[in-house]
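Hi Y.,

Following your request, here is the sequence exactly as I used it, all 142 residues.
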Amino acid sequence: MALSDTTVRQARITGNDYSLGDTDGRALKVMARGRRDEARALVAQGINPYEHRKQQRCSFVMRQSTHSQILRVFKKDVLPTLGRWSIYDINRHDLMHLLSGIEQRRALTTAEQCRTWFKQSFRYVLGVFQRDQLLPRYELKP
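Below is the corresponding structure, written out as tokens. Let me know if you'd prefer a different format.
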């Protein structure tokens, strides 16, 4: 159904935000004034409020869980073995030994994640410092 002038005028603020849609895929979002003011400020900056909220919600949850997982794994497995070494002293054999220890305790997903994090770390270092002759190879294939 198309949004008519009467439908828009009769839209009232309730406890929850809601949308009034039409047949052309457009929608009118009815929201509380505090959130409306925030949304207007975002629109003034050229930002879509819906996409901004959605991105904030998703990235915060993902970032927190991934970050806490990396910290947990590194504290438990990586730092006790490699914690005091310089990145230039670590070689492929050391990394493979560490990963095989994780795999031996049947934590295969954790081993694969560590392998991915090592690859990402060494790729970053190779890109930033251009010292590939001193760094271990990041192709840590089982």
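The beta strands are 18-21, 27-30.

Thanks again,
Q.
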